[in-house]
Structures are given as C-alpha cells and as structure tokens.
Amino acid sequence: MSFRIAAYGVCLEQGKVLLARHVTEGGETSWTLPGGRVEHAEDPFDAVTREIREETGYEGVVDRLLGVDSRVIPAAVAHAGVDHQNIGIFYRVRVTGGRLRAEPNGDTVEPTWTPIGEVASLRRSSLVDTGLALAQILPATGHVRPTPVGGLIQH
After folding, report:
1. Alpha-carbon distance 90 to 6, whole Å?
2. Is residue 144 part of a domain?
C-alpha cells in the first residue's frame, strides 16, 4: 500500500470556492482544491499555503483547521497500481495577495473561482466535497462522513 499526507486549502469568497483542474499523465482531468503532498519535515500548516502559491499564484493565510480525512483508494483505480491511503488535512485559507495564474510546469492548471452552486455539476475529486462539507459544518470532531465516489465524483 502506498501512503501520502497532503494539505488542502478551502478558499471561499463571495459564494465561490477556488478550484483548479488536475490533469493526469493519461490526460484525464478533474477539479480539485489547491493543495498537495506535505514534504518531508514540512509542517502541513506551511504546506497548504506553499501549495496554494505554487498552484494558483495566490498568497494566503490559514484562518483555521477544518478537519482531517483518511481514505483508502483501491488499487483498481489508484494510479500507483496498489491500494493507496491518503490522509488529507483541510484548512480554511484566506487569499491575501498575488495574481491568479496556472501552475508553471505542473499538473494543476486553470485555477478558477467557481460558484459553490455549480460544483455539483463538475467532474471533481471527492476531496472537493469533503473540504466544502468541513467548511460548512465545522464539526467539533474535525471529521465528516466519507464522500461516496462515482459519477462525477472521482478519487
């Protein structure tokens, strides 16, 4: 089984959420929250703002921890070819500066402020739904039920 710890930013402004299109090596695309792998010895709190800067061009500050999600992606759909566990740490992040732009030489393109009401019609990663649920509910435990995967919602 492969394993990864990642930090994701939920950036909300005027009824919109900041999303970016993720492109796989095979050319498939889906929408995701800005964020990604926590590097060795990096604090997830720092990783989320680094990832937002790299993927969107924005500077941001963490307003609060929203919660943590743990999921196992079956080998049949994991790109690694083995079961993959992803621990996602979600933060509410406020954009404080910078200019919106695509990630240079990366697999995350087209960062876009998307009306929250339009998210359900997008082909997206399940972590988008998890992050929005955490931001809306603000559960005391920092945990929401896993987002069912299928249809427009991908691992």
Report:
1. 9
2. no
